[in-house]
């Protein structure tokens, strides 16, 4: 790996282990450092321990819903890019995106389950591409190692 290569940290919260593992595989292939959580409170602890560059939030979970996590991230002055994922109505994800953007979270993307590999890959690459453009430095996932 190039000495100037920056490895981005991704934090996922999704109560479906198979879907979370799918996202982890795709993100790892893009050279993200990935941490998977399956509950909202677990996500909060992981975030506080080491704030990520990108978060993926499932909107519907048993303990805390995605909107609550969005508001929690706002209180933490989150600077991470956010991807909101749901297997329910696309309107649900859109409303969450509007809430997140209105409250000041940046670069909010929505995806609906099921998500294809190319669609997920594109969503994961967007923050890396934006970082490349801003810094002029290569980042993990820029295709140089593939």
UniProtKB/TrEMBL annotation:
<dbReference type="GO" id="GO:0000160">
    <property type="term" value="P:phosphorelay signal transduction system"/>
</dbReference>
<feature type="modified residue" description="4-aspartylphosphate">
    <location>
        <position position="58"/>
    </location>
</feature>
<keyword id="KW-0597">Phosphoprotein</keyword>
<protein>
    <recommendedName>
        <fullName>Response regulatory domain-containing protein</fullName>
    </recommendedName>
</protein>
<dbReference type="InterPro" id="IPR011006">
    <property type="entry name" value="CheY-like_superfamily"/>
</dbReference>
<dbReference type="InterPro" id="IPR001789">
    <property type="entry name" value="Sig_transdc_resp-reg_receiver"/>
</dbReference>
<feature type="domain" description="Response regulatory">
    <location>
        <begin position="9"/>
        <end position="128"/>
    </location>
</feature>
<dbReference type="Pfam" id="PF00072">
    <property type="entry name" value="Response_reg"/>
</dbReference>
<dbReference type="InterPro" id="IPR050595">
    <property type="entry name" value="Bact_response_regulator"/>
</dbReference>
């Amino acid at each position: 790996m190039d000495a100037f290569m920056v490895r981005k940290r991704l934090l996922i919260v999704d109560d479906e282990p198979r879907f979370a593992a799918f996202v982890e595989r795709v993100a790892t292939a893009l050279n993200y450092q990935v941490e998977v959580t399956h509950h909202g409170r677990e996500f909060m602890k992981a975030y506080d321990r080491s704030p990520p560059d990108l978060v993926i939030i499932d909107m519907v979970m048993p303990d805390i819903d995605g909107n609550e996590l969005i508001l929690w991230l706002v209180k933490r002055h989150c600077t991470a890019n956010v991807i909101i994922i749901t297997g329910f109505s696309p309107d649900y994800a859109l409303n969450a995106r509007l809430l997140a953007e209105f409250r000041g979270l940046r670069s909010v993307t929505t995806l609906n389950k099921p998500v294809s590999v190319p669609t997920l890959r594109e969503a994961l690459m967007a923050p890396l591409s934006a970082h490349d453009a801003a810094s002029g430095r290569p980042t993990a996932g820029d295709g140089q190692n593939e």
